[in-house]
Structures are given as C-alpha cells and as structure tokens.
Amino acid sequence: MTHGRFRDLLAAEWIKLWSLRSTSWLVGLGTLAIVAFALQNSLDAYNGWPGFTAMEKARFNPLTEAFSGLSASMLMIGAGSLGALTIVGEYATGLIRTTLVAVPARHRVVTAKLTVVATVTLVTGTVVSLGTFGVSQAILSGHGVAVSLCDPAVLRVVAANALLAPVSALTGLGIGALLRHTAAAVVTVCAALVIVPTFFQPNVHQWLNDLYALVPFYVWRTCLGLPQLRDPALPTVAGSWAAFALWPLAAAVVTLIVVRRRDV
Amino acid sequence: MDAGDVHGGRTAAAHLRALAAGNGLPRRRVAEVLEEVGLAGAARRRIGGFSLGMRQRLGIAAALLGDPPVLLFDEPINGLDPEGVRWVRGLFRRLAAEKRTVLVSSHLMSEMENTADHLVVIGRGELIAEESLAEFAARGTRASIAVRTPDPAELAAVLTLEGAAVRPDGGEALTVTGLSAARVGELAHQRRIMLYELTPRTASLEQAFMELTADCADYRAGDPR
Fold first, then answer.
1. Closest by Cα among B41, B39, B34 to B54
2. Residue B175 pairs with which residues in a beta bridge?
3. Spatial separation of the C-alpha atoms in residues A3 and A106, rounded to whole Å
4. Rounded distance between C-alpha atoms, residue B207 and residue B211, angstroms
5. Pairing between strand B101-105 and B70-74?
6. What are the residue ranges spanned by the domains of chain A?
7. 3-state secondary structure chain B
8. How many beta-carbon pairs below 8 A join chains A and B?
C-alpha cells in the first residue's frame, strides 16, 4: 500500500474520531454542561448582587462566574480523556495493527492523529470559552459589571480557557500512548492534569513555586485565568504560556517515539 | 491485517471508510467491497455485534479495498459458516481468474484440496514442498485398492504371486497396492473368487501432507544434537 499523503491521513483520523459515538456525546454534552454551569453561576451572582457587601463587589471577578476552576477541571478532564481514548482505543482493540499495516509510516499516522485531536479540541475549547463568556456577560451586564473582550487581560483569560482543551487533549494522547490501557490512561489523565495540581498552593519555598509553574492547571489558576495579577511570586504570563506549550509538545514527542519504537 | 483488529464501536462502513481515506482510495470502494463480501446489509451496524464469520468477511473486504494484484489470506475460513466457506472458495477462484495472485495459508488440508492450484508446504521454517496440487498429492502413498471378499486368504495369495503388496485389514478386507483395480478384478474373476467390494483409493492431500511432514520430523530426529 502507499505511504499516504498527509491530507489522506488527516481524513482517516477525522473519520476514526467522529465515527465513534462517544466523541459526539462527550464533545456535545461536555460543552453544554460547562456553558450551563456558567449560566447558573452568573444567574446566582446576578440575583445575589444587591446583597453583596462593598468588599465583595470590589473583588467581584465576572470571568470566574463564566469559567470557574470547576469548569476548567471539567474541560481538562473531558479533553484529556478524549485525547487518551483516540490512541488507547486503537491499542486496546488491536485496531492499531490494522492502521499501521494500511499505512506503515508510523510517524505520519501519529502526526495526523495529533493534528486532528489538537484541532478538534482547540475548536471545542474556543466554543466553550466564548460560549461561557457570552452567556455570563449577557446576564451580568444587567448590573453593569460585565467586561469587554477588547481588554487585553480579558482576552488573555478567554484564550487561556480555550487552550486548556488542546493542551489537555495532547497530554492525554501522550499518556494514552505510554499506557495503552483505557482505565489506567483515563485515571492518570485525571490525576496528572487536575487532581494532583489542585493541591499545589503558592508557598514560601520559591523552588517549589518554580516547579509548580511548569504545570498547566496551576499556571491557569494562579496567572493565565486571572484578569489582574498582583503577586510577583506567582508565575509570569510568559512563563505560563511556556508551560502551556511545554506539555503538549512533550506529549507529542513522547507519542512519536513510543509508537515508532514499541512493537504493536 | 487480522480480521479481529477492529474497533467494535465503529460501523463496518466507517471502519472501511477510514482505511480507504488513509490510502487515498475513493469512497465508493467501501460500498463496492461491502457488497462483494455480502455485508452491504450490515454496513451501518457496529462491528462489536458482528459474528466471527462477519468479521472475517469484513477483514476480506478491507483486503480488497485497494484492488490489490496480490492477496495474502491467513486462515480465512476460520469462523465462516458453510455458506461463507463456499463463497470464499468461489471468491478466491474468481480473484485468481482475474490474474491476481492469491496466497492462502491454512491448516485445513481438505479445504485446500478444493481451492488451491499450487502448494507451498513449510515445516519448522523450512520449505518442504513447492509444487502443483496434483504433484503434491502424488507424493503420498501410491494409489491403493480396498478389496472385500469372503475368501481373503486365497485372493491374497493370488495377488501376491502377481507382484502386489497385500495387507490384510481383518475380516473380509484387504488393502492392495501395486496392481490396478482392473487387474485385481480380472484375477479374481479368473480364479472364481467372489468380490464384495473393489474400490480404488487415491491418497488424500491430508495423507500426503502427514507423510511428508512425518519424513521431515524423522529426518530431524536422526540428526546428532
């Protein structure tokens, strides 16, 4: 058989992704759930606004009503699982052997898979981020506390929220390629992306803070997801973007290496 | 490709569509091969619910997607229903008639007897035989004749005199080698020995195979280690 033009490989991966019913369900219901969550939070804030103290009003961050830490966890776990399942599904069922017999150029197959997963989750993440932002702003503007996308800090937060999805998905894909076991991969994705970083708190040991600054969920919580940055001990914006880039790139390299070197 | 190496959550058509897309094959090939293997009606069903035979058909469909000049099948008959076995036989013959090379690996000798033109026998990684089906079958025990008579002792004596090898099979039965069935009948008639049965037996492919591989094993056992 042929080595496959890259466009053909993208088409094959696209078909494989969307021909599993779980993909549409996960993407559809996940998006709906996170947007509905934004709707509920914003309505609560809207209704509670008259009773807020002056301090609460001063500290009010409308972006958190749109997309909270829980929303981020849901998006990361959903996207991470999606990424992991695209490759674990092939190994667990043996389909990977058929795939690699049909197209023996393994690195091209993997690159196509990474591209499709990154694209789909980037689009989904953008829809989620803009959807939650739009819903929340529409409600909160009633009290005049809405913010504008033209504010660069707001735009950064919205972009960071969206990018959580592809960052998690590619990391999940890398974990899936390493573990090749469905349950183990999904548990590891949840643990590595969300559960363990939840326990990371800024502290007096700067070396620990620097280490935490390499973790996407931590830098999102302490830097990229916040419109105003006050504490200089916390990760910088540039450093945080670097952490966002580091994980998917490392995962892509790991995936390319293990799929090439390990027997199927 | 192993016919079992598929994702059970996909439909047959989606599985083949992905394979076709990856190799730049037109989408209509999917419907064509599904039609060809008799799965057109199950195209939109998920593979998880397929029987072993249906999976085999799907595997064959995947192999046919690219319209290849050479096809290799490893135990394609496993799990097929009787209708499927007949269909696969016809398919192989047709593919061969279309000037393609069809290589089928199988342990089912009787099945190969029905399908193959040319045999390659490999034992312990070594080529044991590579010849036409007829030549291979001829390697087996020389044709023998099964005879039943109420007087086996006398018939055996007569036939032995004529140069045949006679093996008593107990009771009325004898197995004769070295004479044609016609000659055995003629001799029995001349000596007025009654015959109940006179059946020429050709060596089956399975027999030939067993003898050939047994030789190979004997030879190996004789090797100093």
1. B39
2. B146, B167
3. 10
4. 6
5. parallel
6. 3-261
7. CCCCCCCCCCEHHHHHHHHHHHCCCCCHHHHHHHHHCCCHHHCCCEHHHCCHHHHHHHHHHHHHCCCCCEEEEECCCCCCCHHHHHHHHHHHHHHHHCCCEEEEECCCHHHHHHHCCEEEEEECCEEEEEEEHHHHHHHCCCCEEEEECCCHHHHHHHHHHCCCEEEECCCCEEEEECCCHHHHHHHHHHCCCCCCEEEEECCCHHHHHHHHHHHHHHHHHHCCC
8. 74
Which of B2, B10, B45 to probe the A interface (max A CBs under 10 A)? B10
DSSP state, residue A144: T
- Cβ atoms of residues B99 and B67 within 8 Å: no
B17 contacts in chain A (CB < 8 Å):
15, 19
The SS3 assignment for A19 reads coil
Report the alpha-carbon distance of residue A175 to residue A171 in Å, rounded. Answer: 6
Alpha-carbon distance of B186 to A51, in angstroms, equals 120
Identify all chain A residues contacting B18, using CB atoms and an 8 Å cutoff: 12-13, 15-16, 19
Whole-number CA gyration radius for chain B: 25
Residue for token digits 């990977």?
Answer: A96
* DSSP designation for A52: -
C-beta separation of A88 from A180 below 8 A? yes
Nearest-Cα distance to chain A for B3, in Å, is 9
Q: Which residues contact A230 (CB under 8 A, 6 or more apart)?
A: none
Closest C-alpha to A185, from A197, A176, A195, A173: A176
Query: CA A249, CA A256: separation in Å to the nearest integer?
Result: 11
Note the pLDDT tens digit of each residue in A48-63.
999 999 999 888 899 9
Confidence (pTM): 0.82
Q: Any idea which residue has 């045999």 for tokens?
A: B119
Predicted ipTM of the assembly: 0.87
Q: Which segment, B2-6, B89-93, B199-203, is predicted with the most confidence on average?
A: B89-93
